[in-house]
Structures are given as structure tokens and as C-alpha cells.
Design brief:
heterodimer, A: 382 residues, alpha/beta, 16 helices, 12% strand, globular, B: 413 residues, four-stranded parallel β-sheet, 17 helices, 8 strands
């Protein structure tokens, strides 16, 4: 029987604003956006970092502020804070990673003139020494800005403590991911990725506590669910997987996601912060050594070479690529990725989605058809 | 650019000079590889001075793409690219360029292949991704000059400059690796002096729009900005803008306007719709309206401080270009143009091709109309692909807007 901790994490992932309403009474809540804001700094400042992951509900306000060719993650993030959860946040730290997010910061700030607001200017090149120095400098700037906001010094000790807490969180998630990879019947893709998602919004110590319970259960029961028969191993590529029903579709066809390039999974959970050096530099080191899967690489072939390496190392049988409509980065990468995968004979399925997507039955049919072809091609026994 | 136009050519008109310079520049770029020199692709807003001083020939896929779009090749080239799996909602420059790579179709014989690519993201993020595609295609090294948004915090600006200077040193090292030649900073100082002089002259030319009637329209600005984009840092560019300024000054002195009986002086937001240049000019002219300026054409009026470390003044100028500024700063810059040029209305184009500029348009319109009390028209289309240009609808809306201006003027008079 699955532990209650698992159900609670899933409940939070699917209704974070409902489940975590009491958070507002304990701490000021600072919303941030994907993918590079160092939450540890916000946490060490005694604030509650909360990653905003949009809404699948209808857009009513953001359409008047951003054209419809802005990616739906940006539009639905804006909609969420204006139309649905305006009262939930005390401030925002938003990352700028592309033209859309750069403008989003300006529009957002204009809409919330009374809120604390900070841009986090992550480097948009990651290969040279200057990138590491810049990331560290931005962390120092953000640390000072947060201190001004709270009126409290952020001590190095508080930072190391936060780093330890976040490292523990990452280690638990990695452990759970490893068990899931080996025991596909133990939990669904949806369950695992929901548990990861919960960590973006809830109290980290509480997440660790619940996660530990789940890991203990998983360690105990994994042997019973280790049979790989009927499953095929999948890599999930992209930035985010939305709407999450896509995970259900993959579960239905018995695809076991064993690795990914998602900002909301591997990019978040791999690589710890090394303790002991300068805190800003420690954050920068983590940022630059974590799995890159970055939209910008010095070696432009990494858009597919990283994916191919992941596919081979993991022993996967197919790649699903979740393409957010109007994401420019993905729009430019996809044709070359697709061509390279075809060339290598790798089963590759693109799923074009939007947060407000309504064409789910069409997508389901495509996923099922892809699965059928996989069964024929690889002779997978069901 | 190594060849200087002959003495007799210095007497030519600005128009003729532009033609000669463009021809010589393209010839030079095409011959570079055979002559053992290097061609580097770069973005229109980038520290190209570093290339010029190192005898690396800068080539601008954007300029070539704009030429394709002006010749109404946008749809044809985009379709070729779409067949390869790209979407039709990418930047029209990128679509046109990638289409050219597939078909070889070009209005002027194409452009040479790159040995190096530099993308400066002060202009946009799109360019970095587009250049990544080209870097893969040509297996040429790719350098991203990352310019964090020029936010208003003075402390942050100082650190941004430090970061950017550090990157420019990395770029110099990359150029030394490419050519095997040691970088010559004395030569860079000479190039910077030319760049500064040409930039000031270019700004002087743009500022002649303040005359009443204005001797230039934005269409003149768009045509004459080509030289500052691709010959920045050369004496030829200085000579060209001296000639141009003298010609335009003479028109201003004689009270010759770009539009007869100038009634309305308008601001344009965004890049132009390249394939509708003439049509728009004629439509507006019929109403005595002239579009005088935009933030876009001012993107190349730099102010290099030649007493500073060249890398520092390069970083300051390229980071602070309008497209890398905050919304508040952009609005401030546009309002400054309103005041200096006595503008009385805006045509605000939401360009599906250009997210970097267009996503600010709705908020900019709010600020400009609130602060100036002048009317503004927002319309959506694409700068290069006629499939996304709704002829009748846009024409009707522009006409209705111009009639509103007429009515307001009549009420005031």
C-alpha cells in the first residue's frame, strides 16, 4: 500500500494554492519563475520561495498584455498571478532567460508596483569563465537586495544551512528517481513527477520529511515491482511537461520515464552545492556544472549530443519531446534534433502542448499509435 | 573593408556613395576567403569594431534577410524552411535566411559562408538560436556576447559592464585563436575613433527630423542606416554620413520636407514592414503625414567615449541599446523623441516576427498615450511575410487613424 506521504505530496502538487494557504501566515512568499533562480538565497533570507508554474485555467487578463505568440508558460504564469492568485505572493524574483521572459519581467513589475520585485539576470552563455563569475555576482546582488527587503542580514551560516537542506532534498529525489527507474510498477510517472513538483512550492523541510517516508516505503517494496516486462524505457525531453495529463498518457501505454532533461526534474535535482567555499561561488559552481540542457551552449551540437548520450547511458528505447508552442528556443532546436534522431534510428515523438491545450484526445491517439509502433518494432511483450 | 573608394567617387551623392560602398563591401567579403582572410557572421547590434580592427570581415545575415524581404521573397523562403520542419512563427529574418540556405535564392547573389559567428543578445535572444543553427551547419565556432538587461540599478550596471568587458576579452582571445594573429589594440583605437565619428554623424542625420517640415522620413532613415550597420568603424562610413548630412541639411535649409504640406509628425514603434515600405509612405503622404522616427533606427547612434578603455565603452554602448533596456527606459527614450521631434501620434506595430521589440508594445502604448495625450494605433502583422499582412484591414485602420488625426487637428484649429 502506498504511503500517505505520497498522497499528500500529490495533493499539494495538484492544488498548491489550496493546500498551502497557511504558508502565508508563517512567512512572506516570494514567487519565482523557471529556471535559474537560486531559491536557497530566498530561503536563507527567512522567506518562502515558491516556483510559479502557470495555470491550466483559461486566460482572461494576460492576453491583453502579451501577444498570443508568447509561449503559454509565460502567458499562463502572468495569468496566474494577476487573475487567480494575486493575493498569494508578497514579492517576486523572476529569471530572464529569453526575450519573452525579459519582457515578462517588465510587464509583471508594472502590474505589481507595490510588491517586492527583483530580476535575476542569469548568464545566457554557460561555457566560459565569465559566466561563472557573473552568476556568483548576481547571487551577491540578490543577497543584498533580499537583505534590504527583509531588513535582516543573511548570514553565511544561514546560507550553508539552506544549502544542506536543499542538498538533502535533491538527494532524496535522486534516490527516488533511481528506485523508480528500477521498479516501474512501484509508482507511476505522474506520481513521481508530481512529488518533484510539490517541492517547488512547499516548505523544504516538510517536503524532505514526506519524501523520506516515501523513499523508505519505496526501498522496502521495490523488489516486488522490479519486473520490467511490458514496460518500455523513455527519455522525457523538454522544459516542462504540461498539462500533467501527458504523464498519465505515458503511464497508460506503460512507458517508464527513466531520465529527462526537464527544468522541473533533472535540471533541478541533479548536482548538489558543495559546502565550504564562498556561498555565491558555490551556487555558481552548481549552476554551471548541473546537467546543462541549457537553451544556449558554446557547442551548438549539445542540443542533440547531450540527449543522445542520455539516451544511450540510460538504455532507453524512445524519446518523448515535450514542445511548448511558441517557445523560441525549442522552435529553433527541434528540426535539427529531430533530424539527428531519425538519422540514428531513435524512436522520437514530439508532443506540442500549451498550458490551455484542448486537443488532448488527439495527443492521446498519437501517443498510443507511437506505442503500437514501438511494440512492433522492438517486439516488446505486453 | 580594405579598399577605399577613389577620389573622384568622393564627390558622388550619398545615394550613389551608398551603392558603391555596398558593392565594394560585398565584393570584399566574397573575396575574403580566397585572400586568406576570415568572414564572421555577426548581429547588427554587436561590437563589430573588434572584427574590423582585426581584419575579420563582418557579414550580417540580417541585412541580407532584409534585402530578401524587401524584394518580397519572404513567403517563398519561409516555405522552403517550413518544409524542413521549422515553424512559420519564427523571426522573418531567420526564416528568410534559413530558406536562403536551403534554396540558394537571393536578390544579390548571396553572402559568403562564415568562419566564425558572434551573437550579441542585447538585440534579441532569437539571434543566438538562429546563429546556433548556422554554427552547426558550417561547423564554425560560435561566441555569444551575453548582455544582461540594462536594469536601472547603478550598482548592477557597473557589474554588468565588468562582466561584459570580461567577455570581450574572451572574444579577443577567440579571434586571436581564429586568425593566429595577435590583437592590435592601437588599431582598435583607430577603429573606435571612426565608429564614434560615424555614429555622431548618423545621429545628426536622424535628428534632422526635428526640422519643420522634416527633410527626412523614417523610410530615409531605414535606407541610410545600412552603412552604419555594416561599415561601422571604417573611414568610408564617416565620409558617407558627412555627405548625407550635408545633403539633408541643404534640404532643411531650403525648407524642403520629405512630405509636401506636412501636417502630422508620427512615431513608429518596431521594425518596418519591409515589403510595404513604399505603400506606407505613399498612403501617409496622401494625408500629409510623415513618420519621422522610431527607437529602432536610433539603435546605431552610439556614443563611444574614446578616452576610456575601448572594451569598456563598447560594453556600455552595446548593453544599453534600447532593445536591452527596461520598459521604463524604453518609454523614456520614446518620450524624448516625442519632445525633440514634436511628434503628434504613433503607429505601433506588433510584429509577429520580433518578440524582443513587440512584447513591449502594449505597455509602451499605454505609457506614451498617457504621457503625451497623442493618439496611437496598434496593429499586428509580420515584417517580412505577406501571408500575415492583411492588406485591406491594415489600410482601413491606418486611414481611420489618419482621419482621427485630421479631425483632432480641425477641432484644435
Amino acid at each position: 500500500m502506498k504511503p500517505k506521504a505520497l498522497s499528500r505530496l500529490i495533493e499539494i502538487a495538484n492544488d498548491p494554492y489550496g493546500c498551502l494557504a497557511e504558508l502565508r501566515e508563517k512567512k512572506r512568499i516570494i514567487g519565482s519563475t523557471l529556471a535559474d533562480v537560486p531559491e536557497e538565497l530566498i530561503h536563507a533570507a527567512g522567506l518562502h520561495p515558491f516556483l510559479i508554474l502557470g495555470t491550466n485555467n483559461p486566460l482572461r487578463h494576460s492576453s491583453a498584455l502579451l501577444p498570443d505568440n508568447a509561449c503559454s508558460l509565460a502567458r499562463s504564469n502572468l495569468e496566474l498571478v494577476i487573475g487567480y492568485q494575486a493575493a498569494f505572493f508578497d514579492g517576486f524574483v523572476l529569471a530572464q532567460v529569453c526575450d519573452t521572459t525579459q519582457h515578462l519581467c517588465d510587464i509583471w513589475k508594472r502590474k505589481f508596483p507595490d510588491h517586492y520585485f527583483e530580476n535575476f539576470l542569469a548568464p545566457r552563455q554557460v561555457a566560459r569563465a565569465s559566466a561563472c563569475a557573473w552568476y556568483a555576482e548576481e547571487c551577491r546582488r540578490m543577497r543584498s537586495a533580499l537583505e534590504r527587503y527583509t531588513g535582516q542580514k543573511i548570514t553565511d551560516e544561514a546560507l550553508w544551512e539552506s544549502f544542506r537542506l536543499y542538498n538533502e532534498n535533491r538527494a532524496l529525489l535522486r534516490r527516488l528517481y533511481a528506485i523508480k527507474q528500477q521498479a516501474p510498477g512501484l509508482m507511476t510517472n505522474r506520481e513521481f513527477f508530481d512529488m518533484v513538483k510539490a517541492c517547488f512550492c512547499m516548505d523544504k523541510a516538510e517536503h524532505n520529511r514526506l519524501l523520506q517516508e516515501v523513499v523508505d516505503w519505496a526501498e522496502r517494496d521495490k523488489a516486488r515491482f522490479a519486473d520490467q516486462q511490458g514496460y518500455f524505457k523513455v527519455i522525457m525531453a523538454g522544459i516542462v511537461v504540461e498539462p500533467p495529463i501527458i504523464y498519465d498518457m505515458i503511464d497508460q501505454i506503460k512507458g517508464n520515464i527513466i531520465a529527462d532533461t526537464l527544468c522541473t526534474a533533472s535540471r533541478y535535482i541533479y548536482h548538489d552545492i558543495e559546502l565550504g567555499s564562498d556561498p555565491a561561488e558555490a551556487l555558481a559552481d552548481r549552476h554551471l556544472c548541473k546537467p546543462l540542457f541549457s537553451p544556449i551552449n558554446a557547442d551548438p551540437e549539445r542540443i542533440y549530443s547531450d540527449l543522445l548520450a542520455l539516451y544511450r547511458e540510460a538504455g532507453a528505447e524512445a524519446i518523448f519531446y515535450c514542445h511548448i508552442k511558441y517557445c523560441e528556443s525549442q522552435d529553433y532546436d527541434l528540426p535539427d534534433i529531430r533530424a539527428r534522431m531519425r538519422e540514428q534510428g531513435i524512436p522520437f515523438l514530439e508532443l506540442e502542448t500549451e498550458y490551455q491545450t484542448t486537443r488532448l484526445s488527439q495527443m492521446r491517439t498519437r501517443v498510443q499509435a507511437f506505442c503500437e509502433s514501438m511494440i512492433k518494432r522492438r517486439g516488446i511483450k505486453r | 573593408m580594405s579598399k577605399q573608394p577613389g577620389k573622384q567617387k568622393q564627390q558622388a551623392s550619398a545615394h550613389e556613395l551608398s551603392r558603391q560602398l555596398t558593392e565594394a563591401y560585398l565584393k570584399d567579403a566574397c573575396a575574403a576567403r580566397e585572400e586568406g582572410r576570415y568572414v564572421a557572421y555577426t548581429t547588427a547590434v554587436s561590437p563589430v569594431e573588434l572584427f574590423v580592427a582585426h581584419d575579420v570581415i563582418p557579414v550580417y545575415p540580417e541585412n541580407h534577410a532584409a534585402a530578401c524581404l524587401t524584394k518580397r521573397m519572404g513567403t517563398e523562403l519561409s516555405l522552403a524552411m517550413e518544409k524542413k520542419g521549422y515553424t512559420s512563427h519564427l523571426c522573418a529574418y531567420a526564416r528568410s535566411d534559413l530558406g536562403y540556405r536551403i534554396t540558394g535564392r537571393s536578390p544579390r547573389g548571396g553572402i559568403p559562408d562564415p568562419a566564425f559567428l558572434l551573437a550579441c543578445n542585447a538585440q534579441c535572444f532569437t539571434l543566438t538560436k538562429w546563429f546556433e543553427v548556422l554554427s552547426r551547419k558550417y561547423q564554425a565556432p560560435f561566441f555569444v556576447f551575453d548582455t544582461p538587461q540594462w536594469i536601472r540599478d547603478p550598482g548592477a550596471r557597473k557589474e554588468i559592464i565588468r562582466y561584459c568587458v570580461r567577455q570581450l576579452r574572451e572574444l579577443v582571445a577567440a579571434l586571436e585563436r581564429l586568425t593566429g594573429k595577435r590583437y592590435d589594440y592601437d588599431r582598435l583605437a583607430e577603429v573606435m575613433a571612426c565608429s564614434q565619428e560615424a555614429s555622431l554623424l548618423y545621429r545628426r542625420f536622424l535628428d534632422m527630423a526635428a526640422y519643420k517640415p522634416s527633410p527626412i522620413s523614417i523610410f530615409d532613415a531605414l535606407i541610410n542606416m545600412a552603412i552604419i550597420v555594416y561599415l561601422r568603424g571604417t573611414p568610408q562610413a564617416v565620409n558617407y554620413y558627412q555627405t548625407l548630412c550635408a545633403e539633408v541639411q541643404s534640404k532643411a535649409d531650403q525648407g524642403i520636407g520629405a512630405v509636401e504640406n506636412e501636417q502630422f509628425r508620427l512615431y513608429w514603434e518596431n521594425l518596418p514592414i519591409w515589403f510595404k515600405f513604399r505603400d506606407h509612405f505613399n498612403l501617409l503622404k496622401a494625408y500629409g503625414a510623415n513618420i519621422l522616427t522610431s527607437l529602432y533606427v536610433h539603435a546605431w547612434s552610439y556614443e563611444f567615449d574614446t578616452t576610456k578603455d575601448p572594451l569598456e565603452t563598447l560594453a556600455e554602448n552595446y548593453c544599453s541599446v534600447f532593445s536591452n533596456r527596461t520598459l521604463e527606459d524604453r518609454a523614456k527614450m520614446a518620450l524624448d523623441l516625442f519632445q525633440r521631434y514634436s511628434l503628434n501620434g504613433s503607429l505601433m506595430f506588433v510584429n509577429r516576427s520580433c518578440k524582443a521589440v513587440s512584447f513591449a508594445v502594449y505597455a509602451l502604448k499605454e505609457i506614451i498615450t498617457e504621457k503625451t495625450g497623442t493618439p496611437a494605433l496598434i496593429f499586428e502583422s509580420d515584417m517580412g511575410d505577406p501571408r500575415f499582412y492583411s492588406e485591406t484591414q491594415i489600410r482601413t485602420r491606418i486611414e481611420a487613424f489618419l482621419e482621427t488625426l485630421q479631425r483632432r487637428k480641425a477641432e484644435r484649429d
